[in-house]
Amino acid sequence: RRANIKRRSKIPATTVDGVTIKLMGNIELAEEIVSVMDYGGEGIGLFRTEFQYLSRSHFPTEEELYEQYREVAELIFPEPVVIRTLDINGDKALAYARENDEENPALGLRAIRFCLQRPDVFMTQLRGILRAAAFGNVRVMFPMISGVEEVLEAKKMLKEAAAQLEAEGIPYSENFEIGIMVEVPSAVVMAERLADEVDFFSIGTNDLTQYTLAIDRGNRKVAHLYNSLHPAVLRMIKQVVDVGKKHGVKVCICGEMASEPANMPVLLGMELDELSMTPQSLPMVKEMVRGLSFSESRKFAARVLEATTVDGVTSMMDEFVYPEE
Ligand code: PEP
Ligand code: MG
User: Which GO terms fall under molecular function for this chain's record (predicted)?
Assistant: First the structure.
């Protein structure tokens, strides 16, 4: 049965009533592209770029970054790759960056905050991305955005990096979609304004759950409370989707939540445009989507959004998938 499911993973994820949702893969290493393609992923919805920084004792060079991004962009072409700019510190601490001594790293100088304080590091990465973009279908995404000013600053630096390359006569492209991770509650609140600045939102449900519920995603003592199906998280997702629809901004989920087949009725029903997940989950998630009706899922998601507890949400989900039991 598994072999059949895997074979069918090359067919698009189209519901019984003809609605197709784009399913993509998350990767950390260029090598993982093979499994995304093998499991039927329609592009890379999240390229976590931290690995090249974490696996060594110094910051990588522009050339090293460019070469890896170009390889990824070329391999997955014509499908897109969403390159997420550096999301270090927080749960992914960098030993050689002097800023890593913090009491609350998850609330500290991580991701975009780190990059905006270290323009030398950020510029190097942005130049690498811009150069690679000339060779494929690249999208750029900024992590941990908490407000409009960070997006404006990041976009300004991207422009500056392009101007440098232009002046130096180095080939590059800046003709690509720009997006942000929506994973900090303030970004959900400000989504309406953030929508004016970007082409897409990608909801990072791992961090959005952590920050919304004030539960450390890596702390075992509170792991039993950590659940992306919390009604507050679901309502936030819905809010972002609604803003996206209103403003013509694509909305994706790239958190772990998108890797769970049982979540499909709710996610499909909330009308996400794209989902990006662990490559190994693609076949089962596709299979699940193909067995669903979009119009039924919509009605179902509307009911789930009325639930007030995690148990309320999960029991409705169980009943939807296994009605006779
Ligand atoms: C997330 O927060 O949901 C996410 C996809 O990013 P990461 O897990 O890398 O923080
Ligand atoms: Mg995150």
Answer: kinase activity; metal ion binding; phosphoenolpyruvate-protein phosphotransferase activity
Q: What is the 242 CA–ligand 1 centroid distance (Å)?
A: 22
Query: Ligand 1: does its nearest atom lie under 6 Å from the Cβ of 48?
Result: yes
Atom number in ligand 1 closest to CA 256: 3
Please give the average per-residue pLDDT across 176-185, as a whole number: 98
Average pLDDT over residues 300-309: 98
d(CA 245, CA 265): 19
CA-closest candidate to residue 142, choices 23, 76, 46, 221: 46
Catalytic: 115?
no
Apex 141 CA angle, 200 and 241, nearest 5:
30
Distance CA 213, CA 270 (A): 21
Instruction: Quick: pLDDT tens for 86-117.
Output: 999 876 777 776 555 788 999 999 999 999 99
Q: Is the CB of 87 under 6 A from ligand 1?
A: yes
**Span from the CA of 295 to the centroid of ligand 2 (angstroms):** 31
Measured in Å, residue 177 CA sits from the centre of ligand 1 at: 20
Ligand 1, atom 9, lies closest to the CA of: 48
Percent of the chain residues past pLDDT 90, beyond the cut? 88
How long is the chain? Answer: 325
Q: For ligand 1, atom 8, name the residue with the nearest CA.
A: 206
Rounded to the nearest 5 percent, the helix, strand and coil shares of the chain are 55, 15, 35
DSSP 42: S
Give residue for tokens 């959005």. 208
Rounded distance between C-alpha atoms, residue 140 and residue 219, angstroms: 30
Predicted ipTM? 0.99
Which three-class secondary structure state does DSSP give residue 5? helix
pLDDT digits (tens, 9 = 90+) for 215-234: 999 999 999 999 999 999 99
pTM of the model: 0.96
- Is-contact 202 181, C-beta < 8 A? yes
Q: What's the chain's average pLDDT?
A: 95
> What would you measure as the largest C-alpha separation in the chain, in angstroms?
67
Rounded Cα distance between 112 and 157, Å, is 12
